[in-house]
């Protein structure tokens, strides 16, 4: 099995705890040096807009903004579902620097033949 990690996230800030857990998993992988991709769909696409990821999910939970910054610093990438993004009438020029629009074909191309460990939230 490959060294890559893919975290699929469908939830936005309407479930901040789920988003926090997904980011904790992604940050852990990226900070361990694994190439890490978060595939954002449905309401999660909003997380790829600067300043959106600002929640604190629960008492004792790390602020999402801190996890977001750590993920970026560790080289983590976002692949944002273009169908979900366009359905919300968002501007691709507003994406954070480590995000790009792309669906399942670019995700599979990124994974490649070596495979990846996957998580879904």
Distance between the termini: 21 Å
How much of the sequence lies in strands comes to 15-25%
CATH class: Alpha Beta
Per DSSP, the total helix count is 4
The structure class reads alpha/beta
> Architecture, according to CATH?
3-Layer(aba) Sandwich
On the 0-100 scale, what is the average pLDDT?
96
Give the number of DSSP strands. Answer: 5
Q: State the helical fraction.
A: 25-40%
- Side by side, the strands of the main sheet go 4-3-2-1-5
CATH fold assignment: Hypothetical Protein Ychn, Chain: A
Q: How many discrete structural domains? A: 1
Poorly predicted residue ranges: none
Overview of the molecule:
The chain has about 120 residues and is α/β, with parallel strands linked by helices. The protein has a single domain (about 5-100), classed as Hypothetical Protein Ychn, Chain: A (3-Layer(aba) Sandwich). Helices cover about 35% and strands about 20% of the residues. A five-stranded parallel sheet has the order 4-3-2-1-5, sandwiched between helices. α1 runs parallel beside α2 (about 65-75). The longest helix is centred in the first third of the chain and has 16 residues, at about 15-30. It starts with a strand and ends with a strand. The mean pLDDT is about 95.
